[in-house]
């Protein structure tokens, strides 16, 4: 493999070193592509890059399936589209027309209403170079700070906490610390699902040293919590009380490092005064845990030779997220557990390049290279580096995510440009986001995938290149910058995100710039953009003056800071005890516990928690293209404690209505003792592309942290009640799953509940054939026209290979399609309606999905006997089921034996925590 990462081999194949596009772990990958004589290319395979220091060849289930997300052009945006009137359909145009139109409309709005009438909402999935151009377009050319990002929804409280306590953004730790820590504190992080490759490293470190202890703080018994040495199942939102109670104990028992506090920090006296009230007993009562457990956590942390904290959305997505971050950092500062191997507060980034976006200042509350908008000197520095007139940068902070869409809704912001993100699914209280985009004068959506909930609102739709089709860099959770390389050309007329923003900027500049002004957007590629970004960082805390593409090619991924003359990046920060504050001292802050922003009430008595599934990512615009990734969780659901369900007369599998002050949705009920009494849980991934609703953010709350401006997405007060419907449908069809989903999706909204998933067929090539499964319910039977449209979408019209049963009086229809003849006959599709959810129909679906040969007469299909509960898939890589695993556990198998006998856990390892649970508790249903 040459320095550029590409070499041609036999069969016209290429292998390209790049980076995974999912979470902030930043795994290195090697992309295999196939090229034909006509210049066409497609991605056909992937392996973990064994030389990349983030993952050393490991990949999770999501990363291993990336090629399948790129194989089919179906659902990709292939040409620019625009419409002239809000209610007319978009039509395809060439790039010149699209770019000219966007530039003219934005320039007109700025000239008529001022620069703050325009806003940009971009994404932590953009590359650093993409981010840089967008930021320069908004702040340097248009003169507005109204540019925010979906990173506001995941990382801004961590950013604010680091800045307030340590003086600068950026974790002081590195991935090597995962192996060196002796006590690991997980706070609001289900790392087994959200950061599985790092979790593998932690598991292996604990296997090498059984004295390593894990403490997990989470209201749910997640897969991470289930394998912890101590699980603190606190009441939602009580993290600050817990950390204050732990620090009280550390102070009382003399386990703080007084010399470190005296030499390297300030403000501890004020915090100590507050801590007097947070006795372990009082804190434990607030948290709903045993006093002994709180004390045990404090003892393990305070006496550990190296304590590492790993935290994520459970802390950040809160109206008090900054205080939660600060209170956790206080534990490290007070014990000197920072700036040394295996120790420190480590915020795990949710998106692949949330940190790169912060580096270039691509958020409403910051300038490039961690500069502050409100600092006149910082603005002057950027003006000089961008060759802008003095005082041309706005000193007014921009609108952060929630405020931005409220300003669009109120008409204060006239135009919004959305790139590489899906706010109609991911923002809180999405009903108001829909209203905002409906009222906006002009909406630009820049997107790779046509099937997102935001695309229908676009006045202009711009086709963007996606993973495997772009060049640039990303920065991962340990401040490591990695190259992203193109393996294949983008399909159709799709272009890199930086190119699109740059071309629009050039056109606006021609209209708005002063005569003789130096051009701001003369970039000829991503290397030039990175070089300009690099120059802006010199002398700053994230100085990468010694880093460029050539160094990244020759030396591989590097951490910042990497100043000129350095031989490499800095793995850990603050090793000398000098922090990035004006006086070099870290700061303690007074952090009283505050109750959750929305308490439960008689009308809304349950606490709703949200989180991730193991094999899906964000809104599933990418993972939702892979049938195999639905195997572990094939249908959305609301998880409830069995006791709570029994008291409400609710049963597993029934449809329930979840309602808050803002909206409601219907989901099937799952019973699980992973959630405590009074708490329910729903995954955040399911969107309007898979549901008749927009997903769980129909009910989430828009309250946000006053300092970080990050919204409270993790917690809302809700009520749950049975949703009784008189008509139920189960339909499935084998074929091109993405084409089938696109055909069915417009019909979902006509049901009170509808959910679509994709399912792999054993042994089938998912590129050509898999299954689409649709479950739906409504108060009354759907009309004949609706059923006709559904049968057309699924190609389930009556025919020689189709059996049908109708009950006109009850409005019921049952239809089964077949493939093959005689003894080689299999079900190829089905559509079954009934007055209630029917286990017999589900059993018939299982038979179809398993590709079993049909034995006996086809006429017996509607009398198909139920086969019991579906066998859950635990290992999606090898399709190993729970029953197969339990059978081995009964025979005495441990995890090692399961790996040897069944192969589960030997490919990506994402199922290992669940295997450990099954081995520990084989009796659990």
Automatic annotation (TrEMBL):
Signal peptide residues are none
Kindly name one Pfam family recorded for this protein: Fer2_BFD
UniProt-listed SMART domains: Molybdop_Fe4S4
Q: Which UniProt keywords apply?
A: 4Fe-4S, Iron, Iron-sulfur, Metal-binding, Molybdenum, Nitrate assimilation, Oxidoreductase
User: What are the residue boundaries of the 4Fe-4S Mo/W bis-MGD-type domain, all occurrences included?
Assistant: 13-74
Cofactor(s) annotated in UniProt: Mo-bis(molybdopterin guanine dinucleotide); [4Fe-4S] cluster
Classification via InterPro entries: Asp_de-COase-like_dom_sf (IPR009010), BFD-like_2Fe2S-bd_dom (IPR007419), BFD-like_2Fe2S-bd_dom_sf (IPR041854), CT_Nitrate-R-NapA-like (IPR041957), MoPterin_dinucl-bd_dom (IPR006657), Mopterin_OxRdtase (IPR006656), Mopterin_OxRdtase_4Fe-4S_dom (IPR006963), MopterinOxRdtase_cofactor_BS (IPR027467)
Q: Which Gene3D superfamilies match?
A: 2.40.40.20, 3.40.50.740, ADC-like domains, BFD-like [2Fe-2S]-binding domain, Dimethylsulfoxide Reductase, domain 2
What PANTHER family does the entry give?
NADPH-FE(3+) OXIDOREDUCTASE SUBUNIT ALPHA (PTHR43105:SF9), RESPIRATORY NITRATE REDUCTASE (PTHR43105)
Q: Member of which family?
A: Belongs to the prokaryotic molybdopterin-containing oxidoreductase family. NasA/NapA/NarB subfamily.
The name this protein carries in UniProt is Molybdopterin-dependent oxidoreductase
Q: Which species?
A: Lysobacter cavernae
């Amino acid at each position: 493999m040459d320095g550029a990462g590409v070499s041609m081999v036999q069969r016209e194949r290429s292998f390209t070193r790049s980076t995974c596009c999912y979470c902030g772990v930043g795994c290195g990958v090697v992309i295999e592509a196939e090229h034909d004589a006509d210049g066409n290319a497609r991605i056909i395979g992937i392996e973990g890059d064994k030389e990349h220091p983030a993952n050393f060849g490991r990949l999770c289930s999501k990363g291993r399936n990336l090629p399948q997300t790129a194989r089919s052009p179906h659902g990709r945006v292939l040409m620019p589209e625009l419409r002239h009137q809000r209610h007319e359909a978009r039509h395809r145009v060439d790039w010149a027309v699209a770019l000219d139109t966007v530039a003219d409309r934005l320039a007109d709005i700025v000239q008529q209403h001022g620069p703050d009438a325009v806003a940009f909402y971009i994404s932590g999935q953009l590359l650093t170079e993409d981010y840089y151009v967008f930021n320069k377009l908004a702040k340097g050319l248009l003169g507005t700070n109204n540019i925010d990002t979906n990173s506001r929804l995941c990382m801004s409280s961590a950013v604010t906490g680091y800045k307030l306590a340590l003086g600068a953004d950026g974790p002081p730790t590195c991935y090597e610390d995962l192996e060196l820590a002796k006590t690991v504190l997980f706070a609001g992080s289900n790392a087994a699902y959200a950061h599985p490759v790092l979790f593998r490293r932690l598991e292996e470190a604990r296997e090498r040293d059984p004295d390593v202890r894990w403490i997990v703080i989470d209201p749910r018994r997640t897969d991470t919590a289930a394998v912890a040495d101590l699980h603190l199942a606190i009441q939602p939102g009580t993290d600050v009380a817990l950390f204050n109670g732990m620090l009280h104990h550390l102070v009382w028992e003399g386990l703080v490092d007084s010399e470190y506090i005296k030499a390297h920090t300030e403000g501890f006296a004020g915090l100590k005064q507050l801590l007097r009230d947070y006795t372990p007993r009082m804190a434990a009562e607030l948290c709903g845990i045993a006093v002994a457990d709180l004390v045990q956590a404090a003892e393990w942390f305070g006496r550990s030779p190296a304590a590492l904290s790993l935290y994520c959305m459970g802390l950040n997505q809160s109206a008090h997220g900054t205080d939660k971050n600060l209170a956790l950092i206080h534990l490290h500062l007070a014990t000197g557990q920072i700036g040394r191997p295996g120790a420190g507060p480590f915020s795990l980034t949710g998106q692949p390049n949330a940190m790169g976006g912060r580096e270039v200042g691509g958020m409403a509350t910051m300038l490039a290279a961690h500069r502050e908008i409100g600092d006149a000197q910082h603005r002057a520095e950027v003006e000089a580096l961008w060759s802008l007139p003095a005082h041309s940068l706005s000193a007014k902070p921009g609108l952060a995510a929630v405020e931005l869409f409220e300003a669009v809704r109120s008409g204060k912001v006239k135009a919004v440009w959305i790139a590489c993100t899906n706010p109609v699914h991911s923002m809180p209280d999405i009903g108001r986001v829909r209203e905002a985009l409906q009222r906006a004068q002009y909406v630009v959506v820049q997107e790779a995938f046509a099937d997102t909930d935001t695309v229908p609102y676009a006045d202009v739709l711009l086709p963007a290149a996606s993973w495997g089709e772009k060049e640039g860099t990303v920065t991962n959770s340990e401040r490591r910058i990695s190259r992203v390389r193109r393996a294949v050309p983008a399909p159709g007329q799709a272009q890199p995100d930086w190119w699109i923003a740059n071309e629009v900027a050039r056109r606006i500049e021609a209209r708005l710039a002063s005569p003789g002004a130096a051009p701001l957007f003369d970039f000829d590629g991503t290397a030039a953009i990175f070089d300009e970004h690099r120059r802006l960082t010199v002398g700053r805390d994230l100085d990468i003056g010694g880093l460029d593409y050539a160094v990244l090619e020759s030396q591989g991924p590097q951490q910042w800071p990497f100043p000129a003359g350095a031989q490499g990046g800095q793995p850990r920060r603050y090793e000398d005890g000098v922090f990035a504050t004006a006086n070099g001292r870290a700061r303690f802050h007074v952090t009283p516990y505050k109750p959750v922003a929305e308490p439960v009430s008689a009308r809304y008595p349950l606490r709703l928690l949200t989180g991730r599934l193991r094999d899906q990512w964000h809104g599933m615009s990418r993972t939702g293209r892979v049938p195999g990734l639905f195997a572990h969780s094939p249908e959305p659901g609301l998880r409830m404690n069995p006791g709570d369900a029994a008291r409400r007369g609710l049963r597993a599998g029934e449809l329930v209505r979840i309602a808050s002050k803002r909206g409601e949705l219907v989901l099937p009920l799952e019973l699980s003792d992973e959630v405590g009494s009074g708490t329910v849980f729903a995954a955040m991934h399911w969107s309007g592309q898979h549901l008749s609703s927009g997903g769980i953010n129909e009910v989430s709350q828009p309250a946000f942290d006053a300092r970080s401006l990050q919204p409270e997405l993790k917690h809302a007060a809700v009520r749950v009640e049975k949703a009784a419907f008189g008509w139920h449908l189960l339909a499935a069809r084998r074929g091109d799953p993405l084409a089938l989903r696109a055909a069915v999706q417009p019909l979902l909204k006509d049901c009170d509940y509808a959910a679509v998933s994709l399912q792999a067929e054993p042994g089938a090539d998912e590129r050509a054939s898999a299954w689409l499964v649709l479950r739906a319910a409504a108060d009354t039977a759907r009309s004949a026209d609706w059923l006709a449209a559904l049968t057309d979408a699924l190609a389930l019209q009556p025919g020689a290979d189709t059996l049908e049963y109708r009950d006109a009086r009850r409005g019921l229809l049952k239809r089964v399609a077949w493939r093959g003849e005689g003894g080689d006959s299999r079900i190829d599709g089905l559509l079954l309606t009934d007055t209630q959810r029917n286990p017999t129909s589900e059993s018939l679906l299982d038979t179809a999905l398993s590709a079993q040969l049909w034995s006996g007469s086809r006429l017996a299909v509607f009398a198909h006997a139920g086969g019991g509960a579906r066998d859950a898939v635990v290992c999606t890589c090898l399709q190993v089921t729970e029953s197969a695993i339990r059978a081995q556990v009964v025979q005495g198998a441990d995890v090692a034996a399961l790996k040897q006998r069944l192969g589960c856990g030997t490919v990506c390892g994402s199922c290992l925590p669940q295997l450990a649970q099954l081995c520990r508790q084989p009796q659990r249903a």
